[in-house]
Write a structure and sequence with these properties.
It is built from 2 helices and no strands. With about 55 residues, the chain is mainly α. It is elongated and about 45 Å long.
């Protein structure tokens, strides 16, 4: 995985576009998961008190 830092003019737009692409990728991945895998993911997130929100 490559990491690119955008700073300066237009960086906010670049970050929003990256977030949108990341969300699209995750949605495709979730659609391809089996029900049991989704249940395990939900259980892990719930039990370990994980969140997708930024700190």
């Amino acid at each position: 995985m490559e990491i690119i830092f955008h700073t300066g003019k237009g960086s906010d737009q670049s970050l929003r576009e990256f977030d949108e692409k990341r969300a699209d990728f995750l949605m495709r991945e979730l659609r391809n998961m089996k029900v049991q895998e989704l249940k395990a993911l939900l259980r892990t997130l719930t039990e370990d008190n994980h969140t997708f929100e930024s700190k």
